[in-house]
Amino acid sequence: MSEIYTTFYTVALVIIGALLIACLVRAIRGPRIADRLIAANMMGTLIVITICILSFVMNESYLVDIAMIYTMISFLAVVVLTKIYMGIYREKRRQAMEKEGQHHD
What we know:
Blueprint: H1 3-29, H2 33-58, H3 62-103
Helix pairs in contact: 1-2, 2-3
């Protein structure tokens, strides 16, 4: 692999690393749960891209298999977290409606 490609991939990995840090900050700070879920999903996508770039640079094809497995796990994690969040949201909304109903009596 030529020197220019190695430099390009190194720069790409550094940029992806900076984006991962930005997503981590968004996942921690929020302010909403939806922001945290999107940041977690974006982090998973950036990690898969990093694994694929490393697979190409290191000429190791098994890393692509790991990237596919990581993609499936990341997708399932976001689906489960969304399902949990929706359950909590519905419960809070139900409690708020019950509280409003008590005030009107």
